[in-house]
Every structure is written in structure tokens, then in C-alpha cells.
Amino acid sequence: MNRNGCTNFEELSNEIIYEIFDFLDTYQAYEIFNNLNIRFRNLLTLSDLSISVNIINISKISFEQHYEQFFKSNTHRIHSLYISNPFIINLIFSSIKNDILFTQLKILCLKNIDSDDCNDALDYLVLLSQLSTLIIDSFKNDCNRIIMYDKLFRLPALKYCKLSLGDGSAMTDGLLHIAYNNFSPIEHLIIDYNIHFNELFHILSYVPHLRRLSIKCLTLLYDRMPHTFSITLNNLTHVSIKLNHINFDQFQPFMINLFRNLQVLSISTSMDNEYMNAQRWENLIITHMPYLRIFDIQHKTSLFGAVINSKTCQDLMNRFATLFWTKRKWFFTHQHYYLERSNHGFFYSIQPYRYETRS
Length: 359
Fold this sequence. Notes:
Blueprint: H1 14-21, H2 26-33, H3 38-45, E1 51-55, H4 60-71, E2 78-83, H5 86-97, E3 107-111, H6 115-125, E4 133-137, H7 145-152, E5 160-164, E6 188-196, H8 197-204, E7 212-219, E8 238-244, H9 248-258, E9 264-270, H10 278-288, E10 294-302, H11 310-319, H12 323-326, E11 332-336, E12 344-349
Parallel strand pairs: 1-2, 2-3, 3-4, 4-5, 5-6, 6-7, 7-8, 8-9, 9-10
Antiparallel strand pairs: 10-12, 11-12
Helix pairs in contact: 5-6, 6-7
């Protein structure tokens, strides 16, 4: 403490300094404090504490300056890693290839990654026994999904996986083979791109431990559906999904076979107004989804040849206001267009769920 009764930053204990570093990205802290004095340099480079590194917005030149001094010598301490620069991605994974392993790495986020980098990265990641969270955000549409899936499902400790691929990414060689003995430990899967039903079905055969599933948009490929459902997902409890031109008759077998232990269903539908059939939903939930506690639906209505009026809306609301719905506190409303297209509107869940329009 100085004469004015104030404590200088450099006088703080090592424990407090480390707590402050926790609020900073470790790589940024290194750039800021490394040249301050020998004490701070040692605090940053000689500690055994786990570190998080965010190099999404770093330049190639800046990274090269500290690669040998800090990054390469501290790979064993890195707990989470966020990268976007393709050059840095290549440099880092060449380190893995040269036996400089990320023995503590559990969280990896790869942004703006192209097809070749993605495939190379996945080849290296299979060596990381602790990697449990993987986020891939590709900015190109040239990613061959089959190659990516095949490598992805080989990662030995992966629990959480989020894939954001271009909607035009290729399925050039047909479909991924159904899994028989090569299963993934993934429990939470987010597919943030348009995917065909058959492609999804094959993916699900690799993730028998899946608990949570989120899909940006599911569609049919030439109206083809699986003939049989040979897979089971006994742990699946949460599903969020948008259906594109898939009618209730087509989707119901999927729900019957895979949603048996579902607790939360958030579904966005359109076109087929069977999704507004209260009795059909009631029968399905009672018989095949007995554990469902949250039912969140948004349906874009299209009553061709009929005008939606107040009586039509009231009849619809009455069917979703029986004891079955109210005792579960599932409430709904309907909004339709009065002007140009009075046969179009939205049927959706309201409180206790917040209504948010899905794109």
C-alpha cells in the first residue's frame, strides 16, 4: 500500500491476479502483461492452471509473434479454444500432428472453416481424449457432409456438438451408412442448417445416447421416408425442430418411435393443418409421449378455399381448451391476416411459453 492508502495493481497477491485473469481471455492477458515485468511473465507462463484462449479476432501476424513463446508451450494447459483464422487452424493442428497435444482441451470452436480444414481438423481431434464440446461454423457450401459425419462420430469423448454448415453443403455420395457398431457418445446435437429426413435418420443411428436434439429445418427428399425405424433413442428428452413441407402423417411415425421419453417438444410446422388437430395430438401424447411436460408449437395455417373468421378461430381454440390441455397449462392462440390473404395465419403456444417467430 502506498502513502495515499491505495494499493497498486502490481502489489496484489498472485491469487487475486489469477482471479482477474479469469475475466480476461488468457491470450489477451498474455499480450497485455507479458512485458510488464518478470513476475507477471511467470504468472502467465509457469502456472499449471487451465486457460481459455480466444483467437477468433486475432491477425496472422499477431499470432505468429507469440506462437513459440506462449501458445506452443502452453497447449497442455488449454481448456477451451476459439479459432476463426484458417492459417491459425492449420498451424495449431500441425502441432497436434507433431505430438504437441492439447491434453486438457475440452471445448473447441472453429469458425469460418472450409471443407479441407474441417476434414483435417477432425483427423487430428480424434487424438484428443478430453474433447467434449465441438462447434463448427463453416462459411462455405463445399463441405462434404458424409466425410465430416464419418470423422465426427469417431471422436471418443464428444458430448455436445453444434454444426452450422452452408445449406448447400454437399451430399454427393448418397447417404451415410447406418451405424451398427461405431457409435458416438454425443448427448446434445444441434444441426443448424437444412437437412433431409433420411439424412437425419442415418445420423441418429450413430448417437444412441442422445438427450437433446435441435434442427434448423427438416425437409423431405423426393417425399422419401424410411420404411422402418430400427433405431431407439431412449434418452432423448428435448427436441426443437422446424418442419418444411412434412405433413402430420409423414412425421407421426417418427414421433411414435423416437419420442417415447420426450419431456420438451418445440415444433414449427406449416401447410398441413392436421397439426392443428387437437384430438390427434391428445391421442399421440397420451399413447406415445406420456412424459411430455412442455409442448411448444407454431403452425403457419393455410386454409385454402376457406376464409378464417372469428367462428373458425373460436372453434379451433375450444378444441385446445379441454381439460387435457388446461391441466397441463398448455395454452394457445391464433393470429390471422385480415387483409390480402385472409386464409393465412399462425397458430401458436402462449404462456407459459414465450412466443418467438421462427425464421
